[in-house]
Automatic annotation (TrEMBL), chain A:
The keyword rRNA processing does not apply. This is Nutrient germinant receptor inner membrane subunit A (GerKA/GerAA/GerBA). The keyword Nucleotide-binding does not apply. It comes from Cytobacillus firmus. It is found in: Cell membrane; Membrane. One of its GO terms (cellular component) is plasma membrane.
Length: 493, 366
C-alpha cells in the first residue's frame, strides 16, 4: 500500500492559501490499484479520526475499482458521504472534520466523507447539582452525547431538536429542544429570534448564550436556568419549557423560568411531597436569612438597640465590648473575608481548596475574635449567612444572593431598618419588572396565580399536578386526565 | 377622535383591582385616624366607620357606572360630558390633586419617621430616594405599579396580627354605652374618616387598564368592605386599649399600641412596624404619581415619562417647605377635604351629568 503513495506539491489554489500555513492541513495523493486513477484526500489532521481513514476509507478506495466520483458512495462504508461542486463549502466541511476527496478525472466535483474525531468525556456524576437520590448522569461537553441523554428520556417524535450555528469564529452548534404538541409557539419563536440576533464572534459556552439572550442583561439575576442534569431537562420539556443545548458546554439552558424555580432542586421531585415542600421552605428561609441577617445586625446595633430585649442585649454588648470598630466595618470585614475564602476556594484545586476553607474559616475567624477585631456573635451570624447562601440549588443564583447582601448592608448603615426595607422595595421592584422570555419572572407570586402555586414555594403530590404551569401558555395544558386516574378507595372497600 | 384602547398585554386581571384599591386606601391614615374620629363621636366612632364604608360602596358603584357609560377613564367621561376643551381643563385639576395626595402621604410618613425613628433624617434625601424608586417602578409600566400594590398589601399583612398583643391589655367595656352620641356627631366623624378612606377613587383613572372591567367591580366592592372591616376592628381594639382621655393625646395611636408587643428577641416593635410601613406607603405614592403622570399624558399629550419627571420634581421641590407639625397637619386636612369633595360631591355630580348626557344623546339619535 505504501509504495503507491506519492507526495506531490500542493497545487496552489486560492482557497488553500491560509490552509497550508497550518501544520495540521494534510493533502495526500494516491493511485487506485485497478484503474490507476489518481485521487487526493484533503483533511485537517487534528479534526479527523485517523482510524476511519486507515480502516474505512483508504482500503476501499485503493483496492476497489472506480472511475467516477459518484462511485465512491458505494465504496466507502461511511454513511455521511456528500458529492458537490461548490468550492465555498470546502472550508466549512474541512473544519467540521470531513475528508475531502478529489479525483483526477473529475476536477470540478469532490466528495466529503465524514470522519470526525469524537472526543467524548465519559459520563460523570453531577457535581454542581448533586443529589443523593435519583439519576447520577450529568451532561458532558459533546452535544451529540447530551442530546442522546435527553432523547433517551423522552423517546417521542414530538420532541423537536432544531439546530443553529452561532458565532462568526466559533461556529458553535446550538440546539433548541421543545415538545411540538405542548410548547407555546410564541415562546419557541422568541428563542429562535433571539438566537438569530446573537452577534458575537466566539460562543465558547452556554453562559455566553445566557448573557446574550436574557431579557435584561443588566440584572444580577440569571433569567435562564442552567442545569447539568438530563433528568431535569426532560422534566421541564414535559412541562412545556424550552431547552437550549450548546455544543461544548456541559450546561443546558432552560427558559422561560421563574424565580422560585431557582430555589427548587430537582431532588425535590424524588422525595415525598411533604419532605420536599419542607426542604423548599427551609431553602427560602435560608435565602432570606442569608441576605438579611448581617444588615439587620448592622441596623440594630447602629441605630435601634431598643429593639433588642434586655437579656439578649447584655450578651451582644459583652461580645462587642472590646471591638474598636462600628458594626458596619466589623460586618464588612467579615463578609469580605468570607467572600475572599470562597473565591480562593473556587480557584484552587479541590484538595487545596478544602484546606484553605478550614484554615480560613477556623483560624482567621477565631483569631479575629480573639484579637478583638470582630465580635463572636457577628462571626456566627456571618458564617451562618454564608452557609445559608450555599443552600441554593442553582449555583448562579447563589452568587447573586451573595452579592445582594452588600447593597443591603449599605442601606442598613444609612437608614437602619428603614433602609433595609427600602432596599427590599428596590429589589422587589426589580424582580417585578424582570421577565424571562417575556414571561413575568416572579410568577406565581406576581401575577398571583394560585393554580401554579402547586409547584412553587411548596410542591404538591403528583396526583395534584394534573395541569402544566399557566404562565407557559402551553398548547396542551393537561398533563393527565385527573378523572381517569384511579379513584381512591373508600374505607373498607 | 377615537381613543386608542389599552393593549391586552398591558392590562391587569380583574381580581388585582382588589389589591389596587386596598393598598391605596390603607396608607398613612391608619396610623392616626382613631383619635380624629373619637374627637367627634367618642367611642361610638366605629359606627361612623361602618357608615362611611357603606357610603363608599355607593360611590364605587357610581364610579363604575360613569366609566361604563363613558367607556373609559375620567378624561373620557369629562369629554363625554363637557366636550374636549372644558373636559381637559376639568381633568387637569386632578393632576394637582394627585400631586398633593402623594406629597401628603410621603411627607406625613417622613414625619412619622422623624418623630419615632430618626429625628435627623433629611426630608429631602429620603424623599429623593423614595421618588427615584417610584420612577423606577412607574417606568416598569402599570403592571409593575400593580405588582408593588400587591406586595405592598400582602407582605406587610402580618402587621395586623401584631395588634393582637394589645387585646390582652384591652377593656372592651370602654365601648359601652353604645350610641350615646347624636347622629350629627357620628356624621362628622364619618366625614373625618375621609383621609383614611380616600384613594379608592383611583379606579376612575385606571379603569381602561382593567381586563373585563365588569368582573372587577365585585373585587372593588370587596376591597372597600375589607378595608372597612380592618378599620373598624382596629378602631375597636384602640378604643378598648386606650381610655378616651389618653387617646386624645395620641397623634398616632396605632404606633403606640405596638409598644406593647414583646417577643423573646424583639421589643419596641414600632421600629419594625414603621420600617415595614415603607412598603405600605410605596404603592400609595406610586399609584398617585402614576395617575398624575397619566393625566398629564392624556390632557397635554406629552410622553408619560416626561410627566413622571414633572410630578416627581414638583413633589421634591414642595416637600422642602413643609417642616412643622402644624403645616403637615394643615396639608392633611386640606387633602382630606379635597378628597371628600371629590369623592362625595363631585363624583355624584359627574354621575348625574353623564347620565343626562347619555339621555340627551339618545334623544338626538331618535
Amino acid at each position: 500500500m505504501k509504495n503507491k503513495r506519492i507526495k506531490e506539491d500542493v497545487e496552489h489554489k486560492e482557497w488553500e492559501q491560509s490552509f497550508i500555513k497550518s501544520k495540521d492541513f494534510k493533502k495526500i495523493f494516491y493511485y487506485n490499484q485497478k484503474t490507476n486513477v489518481r485521487f487526493g484526500l484533503t483533511f485537517m489532521a487534528t479534526l479527523i479520526d485517523e482510524n476511519i481513514i486507515q480502516d474505512g476509507i483508504l482500503p476501499n478506495l485503493l483496492e476497489d475499482e472506480f472511475s467516477e466520483i459518484e462511485d465512491i458512495k458505494q465504496l466507502v462504508p461511511v454513511a455521511d458521504v456528500q458529492i458537490c461542486d461548490d468550492p465555498s463549502l470546502i472550508e466549512q466541511k474541512l473544519m467540521n472534520g470531513y475528508v475531502m476527496l478529489t479525483i483526477e478525472t473529475e476536477l470540478k466535483h469532490f466528495g466529503f466523507i465524514a470522519a470526525q474525531k469524537e472526543i467524548v468525556r465519559g459520563l460523570s456524576h453531577p457535581e454542581v447539582e448533586f443529589s443523593v437520590i435519583g439519576p447520577k448522569e450529568a451532561f458532558v461537553e459533546s452535544m451529540g452525547q447530551n442530546l442522546n441523554l435527553i432523547r433517551k428520556r423522552l423517546p417521542v417524535k414530538e420532541l423537536i431538536i432544531e439546530e443553529f450555528t452561532l458565532g462568526s469564529l466559533s461556529k458553535t452548534s446550538v440546539a433548541i429542544l421543545y415538545m411540538e404538541n405542548i410548547t407555546n409557539e410564541d415562546n419557541v419563536n422568541t428563542v429562535r429570534q433571539r438566537l438569530k440576533n446573537v452577534k458575537f464572534d466566539a460562543i465558547t459556552d452556554s453562559s455566553y448564550i445566557v448573557q446574550l439572550i436574557s431579557d435584561n442583561s443588566n440584572s444580577p439575576f440569571p433569567q435562564l436556568l442552567d442545569t447539568e442534569r438530563p433528568d431535569r431537562v426532560a422534566g421541564i420539556l414535559a412541562e412545556g419549557k424550552i431547552a437550549i443545548v450548546v455544543d461544548g458546554s456541559p450546561h443546558v439552558l432552560i427558559t422561560p423560568t421563574t424565580l422560585v424555580e431557582f430555589f427548587s432542586s430537582f431532588e425535590d421531585y424524588f422525595l415525598n411531597w411533604i419532605l420536599s415542600s419542607f426542604f423548599r421552605l427551609i431553602r427560602l428561609f435560608a435565602v432570606a436569612f442569608s441576605i438579611l441577617i448581617t444588615p439587620i445586625y448592622v441596623a440594630t446595633l447602629s441605630y435601634h438597640y431598643e429593639l433588642i430585649p434586655k437579656d439578649l442585649m447584655s450578651t451582644l454588648i459583652t461580645s462587642r465590648r472590646e471591638i474598636p470598630f462600628p458594626p458596619i466595618l466589623e460586618a464588612l470585614f467579615l463578609e469580605l473575608t468570607i467572600e475572599l475564602l470562597r473565591e480562593a476556594g473556587a480557584r484552587l484545586p479541590t484538595k487545596v481548596g478544602q484546606t484553605i476553607g478550614i484554615v480560613g474559616g477556623i483560624v482567621i475567624g477565631t483569631a479575629s475574635v480573639e484579637a478583638g477585631l470582630t465580635s463572636n456573635v457577628l462571626l456566627i451570624i456571618v458564617a451562618l449567612a454564608a452557609l445559608a447562601s450555599f443552600t441554593t440549588p442553582v449555583y448562579r443564583m447563589g452568587n447573586t444572593i451573595r452579592l445582594l447582601r452588600f447593597p443591603f448592608l449599605f442601606f442598613a448603615e444609612l437608614w437602619g431598618l428603614l433602609g433595609i426595607v427600602f432596599c427590599f422595595c428596590v429589589l422587589l421592584t426589580h424582580l417585578t419588572r424582570l421577565t424571562s422570555l417575556g414571561r413575568p419572572f416572579l410568577e406565581p407570586l406576581y401575577p398571583p396565580r394560585v393554580v401554579d402555586m402547586k409547584d412553587a414555594l411548596i410542591r404538591l403530590p403528583f396526583e395534584k399536578q394534573s395541569k402544566r404551569p399557566i404562565f407557559l401558555r402551553t398548547k396542551n395544558p393537561i398533563r393527565f386526565n385527573k378523572k381517569k386516574a384511579k379513584k381512591k378507595k373508600d374505607i373498607d372497600e | 377622535m377615537k381613543e386608542q384602547p389599552i393593549p391586552e398585554r398591558l392590562q391587569i386581571s380583574p381580581f388585582l383591582v382588589f389589591y389596587m384599591v386596598m393598598s391605596i386606601q390603607i396608607g398613612i391614615g391608619v396610623l392616626g385616624y382613631q383619635r380624629i374620629i373619637a374627637m367627634d363621636a367618642g367611642y361610638d366612632a366605629w359606627i361612623s366607620i361602618l357608615f362611611a364604608g357603606g357610603c363608599i360602596h355607593v360611590i364605587v358603584w357610581l364610579i363604575y357606572k360613569i366609566c361604563e357609560t363613558a367607556g373609559g377613564d375620567i378624561v373620557t367621561a369629562h369629554k363625554y360630558v363637557a366636550g374636549n376643551f372644558i373636559g381637559k381643563a376639568l381633568s387637569a385639576i386632578f393632576i394637582a390633586y394627585f400631586i398633593l395626595f402623594s406629597l401628603t402621604v410621603l411627607r406625613t410618613f417622613i414625619e412619622v419617621i422623624q418623630v419615632w425613628m430618626f429625628p435627623e433624617i433629611s426630608t429631602f434625601w429620603f424623599s429623593f430616594a423614595f421618588m427615584a424608586l417610584c420612577v423606577y417602578i412607574i417606568f416598569g409600566g402599570f403592571r409593575t405599579v400593580v405588582g408593588i400594590a400587591f406586595f405592598g398589601l400582602v407582605l406587610p399583612a402580618y402587621l395586623l396580627l401584631t395588634f393582637g398583643w394589645a387585646i390582652k391589655f384591652s377593656n372592651f367595656y370602654n365601648l359601652l354605652p353604645i350610641w350615646d352620641h347624636s347622629i350629627k356627631e357620628l356624621l362628622t366623624a364619618s366625614y373625618h374618616m375621609s383621609l383614611a378612606f380616600i384613594g379608592f377613587e383611583s379606579i376612575i383613572f385606571f379603569y381602561p387598564f382593567i381586563k373585563e372591567p365588569k368582573k372587577s367591580q365585585k373585587w372593588a366592592h370587596f376591597a372597600v368592605l375589607t378595608t372597612t372591616i380592618i378599620y373598624t376592628i382596629l378602631a375597636i381594639i384602640t378604643f378598648a386599649y386606650f381610655s378616651e382621655d389618653q387617646l386624645s393625646k395620641q397623634i398616632w395611636p396605632s404606633l403606640t399600641m405596638w409598644k406593647i408587643v414583646e417577643m423573646p428577641f424583639v421589643e419596641r416593635f414600632e421600629y419594625i412596624g414603621i420600617a415595614n410601613w415603607n412598603l405600605i406607603i410605596l404603592p400609595n405614592v406610586c399609584i398617585s404619581v402614576w395617575i398624575a403622570s397619566r393625566l398629564i399624558k392624556r390632557v397635554f399629550n406629552i410622553r408619560q415619562k416626561a410627566g413622571v419627571f414633572f410630578v416627581v420634581a414638583a413633589v421634591l421641590s414642595i416637600i422642602n417647605f413643609l417642616d412643622t407639625r402644624k403645616e403637615i397637619n394643615t396639608l392633611n386636612d386640606y387633602v382630606g377635604k379635597m378628597g371628600f369633595i371629590f369623592n362625595f360631591i363631585y363624583i355624584p355630580l359627574l354621575f348625574a351629568a353623564v347620565m343626562m348626557t347619555k339621555k340627551l344623546k339618545k334623544g338626538k339619535k331618535k
